Fold each of these.
Amino acid sequence: MPFLTGLTVYCIELDKTPQYVDNLTRNKIFGGIMRKKLLALCLILLALGSFVFADDAKVMPAMVGRFYVAPTFAFVPGAYNGDGKYTSISGDSPTLFNLGFAVEFGVLDWITAAVQWVPGWTIFSDVKSLAPAAYQALPINFDSNGVADIFAGAKIQIIGEKAPVASDMFRFAAALGVIIPMPGPDFSKEAGNIAGTKDATINSMDRHAFALGARLYFDWIINKMFFLNLYNETIIYLGDGDFKGHGLDTASAIGGLGNGKVSYKYKLTFEIEPVFTMPLAEGINFSAGLPVNFVYKPAPGLSPYNAMYFPNSNYKDDSYVLSLRPNASVFLTKTPLPLEFKLIYSLPILGQNNIAQHAIQLQIRAYFALPGAER
């Protein structure tokens, strides 16, 4: 599944404010933070994109379900700039701990319904080293705590062993769903906390905007122990965010400009993964995979103030990241409640306008069957 992704660099340089913005308006735009006489305010904020389950084309058997718990620890030793150059972050690496959940249930042998909250809730995070040097000197903490949005949808297997188009060599499935926005931080209040030297949240866990999602899965079954998986996710954002929920610089502009809108457009994910499986013993199955994952996001659009009031912000730049995600899992099928443990490590290879985030995730999957399930 894709891990947390994205980097947005927001820079507001006071000495480059447009000449047609008078001093009074300028003061309103940039708020109390700017009264500290910083020559520049450059915030590198974690944009924690969605953990989605980049699974294979398999579906759950009818009347069988599974529940996920997915704790994740992530750290960010560096970032990629607009030219794709990697730069280490000075000071301690930003860290976070997130706890995600999901439930999937087989409605039919070829249709699975799912509700996924991954990433779910960031319980702890420390991102002070991403703040400007002047902020780091303040006796306060900066975090990225909060909740992510929820994905709800259904996965339909079109080609497969029990699918409408029967095949034992290929599997193909498509999933449709919606992104249900959850509450995010109000950065107008967070900017006030910073001005009052109080702990503050400087990043939103997700985009908190309504969206439609489509996922495609294709498996080429080479033999009983090996198959190749191709995966794509396309998210189309239908609802806009606002300045209060987008970032500190846009939130600080509300006093002088009003609460503008932020368009997130879309997000694309592609992945290819060779998967190896084998039995270790009776009731114990092992599998391992090496996914190559690519995530692309266009620059968000600000309306109606984009060019005039944020000339030095990095909104015009798109972002992407390419990562390796080696994983291994053990599936215990003979226990009273079948359990699967899957360990995943995410390693960035290259990117642009993106954090170089490393993450370790443990997925704990518990399987259950309801009356009517095939034994």
Amino acid sequence: MNTFLNQLKNSLAPILGLVVFCALFIIGIFVFSYVLIFAALAGLVLFCIGFVRFKLFQREVRKQEQFMQKNPQKPTQGRVIDYEDIDK
């Protein structure tokens, strides 16, 4: 009887290990899919926030650029370096 149990244990161990491995693999796929879905939703939310901020504040930047074109500022201090003269 003891040899029969050893043979049964030796023959069922790889099958049992394979079943456990397959079950853990399937559970891992489900967990990964949920993580992927949540990451995609978080990315979508961040993209929408950035897009709305870009569209709202883009007008302000344009107004500043138009103001700068109408009223250019002269450098008050410092020196101007001409890059064409550096190589000479």
Amino acid sequence: MLSRLTLISLLSTATLCAQTRQPAPPKPITSQPVEDIVDQLVANASVYRNNLPSLTADEDIVSDLTILGIYHKHAEARATFRAIRKSDDSSLDESRQITILNGKPVKPDEHPTLPVVLYGGFGRFQDMFFSPQHRPCFNFVRAPVTIAAPIQIDITLKPTAATIPGCESGLTGLTGIARIDPASGYLSHLERTIPPDIAVKFNHATFGSVDSGPTQLGDRVFWLPIIVTGDVIENKGKEKGRFTAYYSNYHRYTATSTILPGTSIPTEPNP
């Protein structure tokens, strides 16, 4: 895990030789150039992607869908969310088991559907901007400092993205916003917006955002999603929906393997 960025105080003592030069303290992240901040976000995303263990969490969902601007479907659910690391690569396989739907218990063998469902908030979302492959596709500009967002980076797709290897072509007008926690240097908020006509054409959500916070998993701290939100337009614009999920009670995921009648041991999937 990357260490927290701190300010180093230089203390002079009588025992130090006059000609000894102390190393300069690192710049606080608030004063670093935007390219250095993006470098750190790419590095953080790589550590997250390669080291986040399989996990489970409580998930509270609000799902809404409007059809032709008239008919409305609404659902509220509680689910057990899992992000399981596959043994053959570094991706996380996301799934959920709904346990309560609109206030009523759901049996384990039942799999109800929600008006709108989204996946991808655990790892893949930040990779859209902060991976070695995708970073060259975007322009990153520091936004003016505000109390709500002391470090914000505005992101736009480069006009030449279609000619850059690894960039997804056709997503004209895609923009993003990244907000960074000043104390740790980690992403606290990330959002992405795509014009509706482009989103419909490429089957993407028109808007997606992830708010993250520090979470203890075992002996390590990871910045994990707290709120995930997505807006969708489907069926040629006839259907519009929003999905919001709130995450809490994170734990490392363990599977149970029975080796003898009445005896079991917990095992974790291979990282």
